[in-house]
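Agenda item 2: zinc ion complex prediction
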Amino acid sequence: MKYALVNGNKIEAVKGVKGICPSCGSELIAKCGEVNINHWAHKGTRNCDIWWENETEWHRQWKNHFPKEWQEIVHFDRRGEKHIADIKTDKDWVLEFQHSFINPEERNSRNKFYSKLVWVINGLRRKTDKVQFQKVLEESSRAPVGNVNIRQVNFPEESRLLKEWLNCGVPVFFDFYELNKSTLWFLLPLNIKEEAYLIRFSREEFVTVHNNNGFDELVYKLIPNIQNIILEYKRSISNRSVNNLLNCQTRKTIRRRRF
Ligand SMILES: [Zn+2]
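Presented output:
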């Protein structure tokens, strides 16, 4: 963990200092070495939160973009279950920075536990992910949503990342930070099966939209609008094809009558 409580204050790890775990209240040891980033750890192999994953530099950089008061917040549900959220914003959005693989069952329990959850996925953990993702993006088309450049991926199953996260039901961002330090791809939580819709986001935009409390508007207003526009377009296309079919049949009938 980045923070422990020392005399009631949230403090980063300092060699030789002992802290208290904000979640379970047990003693934490400051780990300050050259290999791993400075962090706090429970004694031995103890870990009070089964959802906690070891922090990488990537996790730490993300957390550092947000105010200290939002970092590593112990979140309780109604039944008293508790977990440490990487970030919890003023608007109660929990941001989870996920490096390792997470199975669908655990992902669903987190989606339920945190009612407002955003996943930020490390897109560089597996070597093949970046290549596959780039390929489906290259083959994507522009979704019919006015001036907003939304990429429509028709065969999301060709990217393992997209296949795993499609229909997750909550906002998901893929972070390919080495490709271009600032590029994130936002997988829109649309209720449209078998297609993925992606918007390019910069890391700065992501941080700003949370710091300015604009994420509610994005998720509860703009995304439903986008979904309606896409569904409306799909309906008009299918109506058009039905009409075309009817026209075609009418023409055939007319022709048959003539001859
Ligand atoms: Zn603990």
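Discussion summary: The CA atoms of residues 169 and 189 lie 5 Å apart.
Owner for follow-up: CH.
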